[in-house]
Write a structure and sequence with these properties.
about 375 residues, alpha/beta, 434 Repressor (Amino-terminal Domain), Rossmann fold, six-stranded mixed β-sheet, about 15% strand
Length: about 375
C-alpha cells in the first residue's frame, strides 16, 4: 500500500488498514480505552508506530463526544462600559491570563474569552455556556457585588471560580483572590511608621469586594496606630486610572484638605496622584508620601511612590488553572484561596519634575494643606 502524503489528513481506518487490524482496535489503543478485549503488546506497538508514521491526529469532535469534555475553559471579563477602560489595559488581567494560559495549555485546554454585559447577565449567559456545552469550566474576573445573579452560578453545581473580585455570595463560592485587607493595612501602616498623620484614602470603584477589603485594612491600621479617625479622609476616584488619581489630588487641594500621606487603591491611581501634586507645586515625598496598595509584581516604575504592596497576578492565574481543573474533575470540591501580598519598599524618590504630569492640562491650584 502506498504511504499517505503526510500533509493529508489520516483517519483511524487508514491506520487500521496499514496495521491489519479492525478500526475499533486502533480506537481502543490510541484512546487508552482497553475495553474487555485484550490487545497483544506487539499489536499495540505496531499501531502506535504506524499512527506516528502517518501523523494521525484524533478528531477533536469525536474525542469530545466520548469524553463529554470540550477542552475549553471560559474566561468571563467585564465589558468596556463596566471597566471604564479597555480590558487588556488592566495589567493584572493580562498577567493573570499569562499564568492561566501556561497551565491550561499543559493540560490540553484552551481559553475562550467571554464579555459580561447587561444582555449576558440578563440571559444568564454564565449558565448557558455550560448547558450548551461551550465550556468545561468558567473563570469569572471582576464580579460586582451588586450582581446578585451570581448566586445562581454558586448553586448550579457547575465548575467555576471567581477571580480577584468576589460576589456577595462569596461565603459559599469558589474563588481565588488576594488578601486585599492586608494590602490596605500594610500600605497604611507604612505611612504611619514614617510619621505621616494626616492621611487620605483614594479608592477606585466602590461596587467591588476588593474596595471594601482595602478600606477595612486602611481603617484597621489607623485604629491600631491610635490615630484619630478624623485624620483619615476618604476620597473615591471612580476608575483605577492615572487621570482619575490626578483629578482626586486636585479636588483634595482645591477643597483645602490638610494631608501629608496618601494611600491609593492601585498603582496607576498613585502615579496620577503624584502627577496632580507636582502640577500644584508640591514635592513628593517631602511634602506628601504616596503609597499604592495594589501594584503589579513585575512593574518597578514607581515614579515617586515610596512603597507599595504588590499583587502577583501571574501566580493567581496559575493557581486558578489548577483550581478549575480540579473542579472539573470534582465540582463538589470547595476552593477558597486567598493569596498573600508582599510589601515592596522603594527608596524615597524626590519626584518634583512637572514633566511627569505634562499630559494633564490643568490649572494649578493653591496647596492649602499637605506639608508635612
Amino acid at each position: 500500500m502506498a504511504v499517505k502524503d503526510n500533509l493529508q489528513p489520516c483517519s483511524i481506518r487508514d491506520v487500521a488498514e496499514r496495521a491489519g487490524v479492525a478500526p475499533s482496535t486502533v480506537s481502543r489503543i490510541l484512546s487508552g480505552r482497553p475495553g474487555s478485549i485484550r490487545v497483544a503488546a506487539a499489536t499495540r506497538r505496531r499501531v502506535v508506530e504506524i499512527a506516528r508514521e502517518l501523523n494521525y491526529a484524533p478528531n477533536i469532535n469525536v474525542r469530545r463526544l466520548f469524553s463529554r469534555r470540550t477542552g475549553i475553559i471560559g474566561l468571563l471579563t467585564p465589558s468596556y462600559h463596566q471597566m471604564g477602560q479597555h480590558i487588556f489595559d488592566d495589567g493584572h488581567l493580562t498577567r493573570m491570563i499569562s499564568g492561566l494560559e501556561g497551565e491550561l495549555t499543559a493540560n490540553d485546554y484552551s481559553i475562550l474569552l467571554k464579555v459580561n454585559n447587561d444582555a449576558f447577565m440578563k440571559e444568564r449567559g454564565f449558565l448557558r455556556v455550560f448547558r450548551e456545552s461551550q465550556v468545561d469550566g468558567l473563570l469569572v474576573w471582576g464580579a460586582y457585588e451588586s450582581e446578585t445573579a451570581w448566586e445562581e452560578l454558586v448553586r448550579s453545581g457547575y465548575p467555576y471560580l471567581f477571580l480577584n473580585n468576589l460576589p456577595t455570595a462569596s461565603a459559599a463560592a469558589n474563588y481565588v483572590t488576594s488578601d486585599y485587607e492586608d494590602a490596605g493595612f500594610q500600605a497604611t501602616r507604612h505611612l504611619l511608621q514614617q510619621g505621616r498623620d494626616r492621611l487620605v484614602w483614594i479608592s477606585g470603584k466602590t461596587d467591588i469586594s476588593l474596595a471594601r477589603q482595602h478600606e477595612a485594612g486602611v481603617r484597621r491600621a489607623v485604629a491600631a496606630h491610635g490615630l484619630d479617625p478624623s485624620r483619615l479622609t476618604l476620597m473615591p476616584a471612580g476608575d483605577y486610572t492615572q487621570a482619575n488619581g490626578a483629578a482626586a489630588a486636585r479636588r483634595l487641594l482645591a477643597g483645602g484638605v490638610s494631608f501629608n500621606g496618601v494611600v491609593t487603591a492601585n498603582q496607576d491611581l498613585g502615579i496620577g496622584v503624584v502627577q496632580g501634586l507636582l502640577m500644584n507645586g508640591l514635592v513628593v515625598p517631602n511634602d506628601v508620601s504616596v503609597v499604592s496598595c495594589d501594584g503589579l509584581w513585575d512593574r518597578d516604575n514607581h515614579q515617586g511612590i515610596v512603597s507599595r504592596i504588590k499583587i502577583n497576578a501571574m501566580k493567581m492565574g496559575e493557581v486558578a488553572a489548577h483550581g478549575i481543573l480540579r473542579l472539573i474533575e470534582d465540582p463538589t470540591v470547595r476552593i477558597q484561596e486567598v493569596m498573600a501580598v508582599e510589601q515592596a519598599d522603594a527608596s524615597p524618590v524626590a519626584a518634583s519634575s512637572p514633566r511627569l504630569a505634562a499630559c494633564y492640562e490643568t490649572q494649578p491650584a493653591t496647596a492649602q494643606g499637605g506639608n508635612a
